[in-house]
């Protein structure tokens, strides 16, 4: 199916496609992360809803993110689709294994920010997300990778890594999205610029920056927008680098990050490409969708139309 085809489908065609999917029983492997903010909620109702929608459900729990990819690789021949329950970091940890399996992926958002669900228009309530999977409508989306680790939203170096390290699971469970604000204030108070070398399409830029972020999707950080025209199915990565002289100027820019217009500030460098290489003087940790997964030097790539995901009928364009 063409990436933009769902927006051109007639209502009758879409209804037929969804109904046909629901008539055929599919085997679903439900992968649950109990450590997610809402991971301890009962999934009995979710399983029942999926079964009513025509899916035969097998539940597999994991307690460490590396187990998730191994479970997918081990069990992929025994299922017709994968359903990942957890936050953005959990879903992204499954990305490369899902891509290799070739199976469609459903998402039950159980995290704090749930930015991928926001990008795809997936409801953040468990019942609504289960109904999306049962309906059976899919679209293909891009996957980003940094040094071989998959991500859907953003990979970054700088302040966001300190933010991720400060967001302990117990803090997120207690404060939800407010935990991001608390952690961000602490990071800003201690933030120091660093020197990075960014390479794209043969061009090399040496920058003094507080953060370099490379987005694959549209939303990140609890509803911020990577770039005004960013989309998760456009085949590109969107980079920005925060090169202001005073870190507290970031407070004046917060509204522009919510709308994706931060690139209009002259202190923000932006670029769009299919690959970026980022080097720092010393190895620096890299945050991918809330998880520290690798360190610099970092090679960031886009894998266009790499994964088929379940989306709501009549979902809006991803951009």
In short:
With 319 residues, the protein is of the alpha+beta class. It contains 11 helices and 18 strands.
Task: Give keywords.
319 residues, alpha+beta, Tumour Suppressor Smad4, 2 domains, six-stranded antiparallel beta sheet, 11 helices, 31% helix, elongated
Description of the molecule:
This protein is of the alpha+beta class and 319 residues long. The protein folds into 2 domains: 5-143 and 305-310, Probable inorganic polyphosphate/atp-NAD kinase, domain 1 (Rossmann fold, 3-Layer(aba) Sandwich), CATH 3.40.50; 149-303, Tumour Suppressor Smad4, CATH 2.60.200.40. It contains 11 helices and 18 strands. Strand 16 (285-288) and strand 17 (291-295) form a beta hairpin. Helix 3 packs parallel to helix 5 and helix 8 packs across helix 10 (178-190). It is elongated. The relative contact order is 0.17. Residues 1-22 have low confidence and may be disordered.
